[in-house]
Write a structure and sequence with these properties.
Layout (H helix, E strand, L loop, with lengths): L1 H10 L5 E5 L4 H13 L4 E7 L4 H8 L22 H10 L2 E5 L1 H14 L6 H11 L9 E3 L8 H14 L3 E9 L4 H11 L3 E8 L9 E9 L3 H13 L4 E2 L2
Parallel strand pairs: 1-2, 1-4, 2-3
Antiparallel strand pairs: 5-7, 5-8, 6-7
C-alpha cells in the first residue's frame, strides 16, 4: 500500500494534496506514510461515506471507535472500526478526514463514467465525490486515488439513475389534472416547451390525493441541470398546475 504513495511521488512530484478512500486505515495509512517521508508538506485527505464514517468518528473520539452499523453503496470502505495500528498511522500522517453522502458518491461514479470513461466502485469514487462537492481544497495540484472498479451492473444502473437525479439531469414531477379530454396533452405541451424530454409518465385516476373529477400525473423527465428543473416547475406553476411531492 505504501508503494502506491511512492508511485504517486515519482509520477507527480509537484503534487500538493492526495485524496484517498479511508476505511480501516490500511490504504490511506500506507500512502500517507510513504508520501510524508518524501514530501512532508503534502496534504493527505481521507474520504469516508457518511453512512460508514468509522475513521472520521474515531479521530474525533481520540481512538478506534466501533460503529453499530454501516450503510453505504461504497461497500469497499464499509468498515465498522479502524485497526489499532492503521489508526495510529492515520493520526500521525493523515491531515484530514471528510465524509460524502450517497448522492455525492453516485454523482462521482457518473462523472468518472462520462468524463474519464472509468468504471469506479463506490469506495473508489469517494475522493472524486469530495472534490466535486467542494469538501477539499483543490486549488493546488491534487491527486485522487480511485481504488477499484468492483461494481455489479444492477447496482451501477441504480447508481447512474441516482447520479443523474442528484445532478438535475433526471427529475420526477407530479401534478394534478382535470380529468377531461385534452388535459394531458396541454400539460405535455407545457413541459415540451421548456425543452424537457419525457422518459416515463404515469396517469392515475384513482389516486387518493386527487378529487373525483381529477387525476394525478407523475412524469420522469430528462433535464439539463437543477436550474432547468426549477424552470420547468416555475413554468408549470405559472400555468396553474399544482405540484405535488413525488
Amino acid at each position: 500500500q505504501g508503494t502506491l504513495g511512492l508511485e504517486l511521488m515519482e509520477q507527480c512530484p509537484e503534487l500538493s494534496t492526495v485524496i484517498v478512500p479511508a476505511s480501516g486505515g490500511g490504504l490511506i495509512g500506507g500512502i500517507a506514510f510513504a508520501v510524508k517521508q518524501l514530501k512532508p508538506d503534502c496534504r493527505i485527505v481521507g474520504v469516508q461515506a457518511a453512512g460508514a464514517a468509522s475513521m472520521y468518528l474515531s479521530r474525533h473520539a481520540g481512538g478506534p471507535t466501533e460503529l453499530r452499523s454501516v450503510s453505504t453503496i461504497a461497500d469497499g470502505i464499509a468498515v465498522k472500526k479502524p485497526g489499532d495500528l492503521t489508526f495510529a498511522l492515520c493520526q500521525q500522517y493523515v491531515d484530514e478526514i471528510v465524509t460524502v453522502s450517497e448522492d455525492e458518491i453516485a454523482a462521482a461514479i457518473l462523472a468518472l463514467l462520462e468524463v474519464q470513461k472509468t468504471v469506479a466502485e463506490g469506495a473508489g469514487a469517494t475522493p472524486v465525490a469530495a472534490c466535486m462537492s467542494g469538501k477539499v481544497d483543490t486549488t493546488k495540484k491534487t491527486v485522487c486515488v480511485v481504488s477499484g472498479g468492483n461494481v455489479d451492473v444492477t447496482t451501477l444502473s441504480r447508481v447512474i439513475t441516482r447520479g443523474l437525479t442528484y445532478g438535475g439531469r433526471l427529475a420526477t414531477i407530479t401534478t394534478k389534472l382535470a380529468d377531461r379530454a385534452g388535459s394531458l396533452a396541454n400539460l405535455l405541451n407545457v413541459v415540451g416547451g421548456t425543452g424537457a424530454n419525457v422518459v416515463r409518465i404515469h396517469h392515475e385516476r384513482e389516486d387518493v390525493n386527487s378529487e373525483v373529477n381529477a387525476c394525478v400525473v407523475s412524469m420522469v423527465l430528462e433535464t439539463r441541470n437543477a436550474d432547468h428543473v426549477q424552470k420547468i416547475k416555475d413554468e408549470l406553476t405559472a400555468k396553474g398546475y399544482s405540484l405535488l411531492d413525488a
